[in-house]
Design goal:
Layout: E1 8-19, E2 23-24, E3 30-31, E4 33-34, E5 39-42, H1 44-59, H2 76-84, H3 93-98, H4 100-105, E6 106-110, E7 121-125, E8 128-130, E9 133-138, E10 141-151, E11 156-177, H5 179-185, H6 189-205, E12 215-225, E13 240-243, E14 254-257, H7 259-267, E15 272-279, H8 284-294, E16 298-299, H9 307-314
Parallel strand pairs: 15-16
Antiparallel strand pairs: 1-11, 1-12, 2-3, 4-5, 5-9, 6-7, 8-11, 9-11, 10-11, 12-15, 13-14
Length: 317
């Protein structure tokens, strides 16, 4: 019998340099910006897409529910049919059993077949949820005009377009892991270990397209509590990023202060079971700072699973 999972809160910080972290299709694919504050916004869907795409590339599409099939977008009922060969409601939990992303993030699984039952579905709320990400400082948009040249029947011709990017954005995401909701999707502690290991890795290897290259993670922190009741709130409020210069172009142009985060951990040590952290080389001093405040409760790299161990969890081998 699986033991009840504990609640956790997650802080993820990564940089986007001369790229488009999350384009808005309703605004010429410009980076999403709060027009009142000039804060860069990134949807949780974009973050989870990095994770899902990495799972597919590493282990295959049979273990990811929200994905393309052979490179093509498909309807949800087609995806279920590919996985199960049926829309039978009695087998709906097999989607959760097979697909790691469904166990982590939840899923809406169609169960109706035919015109009379079209649209019928069963929804599962994922135990792992992320709020929208936002930059920890104001950002500037780079607006470039680009030219493409094509060959016609008799001559070459060109087209002009816009290439929208942020010069630099240090983006923070906040997430919650609900021990209670884990029961509803069958998420296990091993599944959570995969998230710990591969979300960080995905942010290294997935942003390699033309619009995303320039993104790199700096901090992944998961604070695990002693029960399935505790949630203390958005960890981003304890991190301060103060510009050192008017033009922010690199991490070094920001004065980062994690004192508030460390004090928050210290104040709540009695509620905390474990603190897991991964940092970039630049933020190693921050990791050491956090380690000192929670001593034996700190773990440097989450679980240190090998590729074979990760594959066994994803494929339930």
């Amino acid at each position: 019998m699986e033991k009840e999972l504990l609640n956790s809160e997650i802080l993820l910080i990564y940089e986007a340099k001369m790229c488009n972290p999350n384009g808005d299709p309703d605004a010429e694919n410009r980076p999403r910006i709060d027009p009142k504050t000039n804060i860069n916004l990134v949807s949780d869907v974009r973050l989870k897409r990095f994770f899902r795409d990495y799972l597919v590339e590493k282990f295959g599409e049979d273990y990811v529910y929200v994905t393309k099939i052979s490179g093509e977008s498909v309807r949800a009922d087609t995806r279920v049919e590919k996985l199960l060969g049926t829309f039978d409601e009695s087998r709906v939990h097999e989607v959760l059993r097979k697909c790691l992303d469904a166990r982590l993030f939840g899923a809406t699984v169609p169960i109706g077949k035919g015109e009379a039952e079209r649209g019928a579905s069963k929804s599962f709320i994922g135990p792992v949820q992320f709020a929208w990400g936002f930059s920890l400082h104001k950002v500037e948009i780079a607006d470039f005009t680009i030219t493409s040249v094509f060959s016609g029947r008799e001559e070459e011709y060109g087209t002009f377009g816009k290439d929208w990017r942020v010069y630099y954005s240090l983006i923070g995401f906040y997430g919650v892991v609900s021990g209670r909701r884990a029961k509803g999707t069958g998420m296990t502690e091993d599944d959570l270990k995969v998230l710990d290991n591969l979300l960080w890795k995905a942010l290294h290897v997935q942003p390699t397209t033309r619009s995303k290259i320039g993104e790199r993670p700096h901090l992944y922190l998961r604070i695990e509590y002693k029960d399935a009741e505790t949630v203390l709130g958005d960890l981003r409020r304890f991190v301060k990023a103060t510009p050192k210069t008017e033009a922010i172009r690199n991490l070094e142009d920001l004065d980062l202060n994690f004192d508030g985060l460390v004090n928050h951990i210290k104040r709540n040590l009695d509620l905390i079971s474990k603190v897991y952290a991964i940092t970039s080389e630049e933020l190693n001093p921050v990791k050491d700072f956090i380690r000192k405040c929670c001593a034996e409760k700190f773990q440097d790299l989450p679980h240190k699973l090998t590729d074979a161990q990760l594959e066994a969890i994803v494929k339930k081998a």
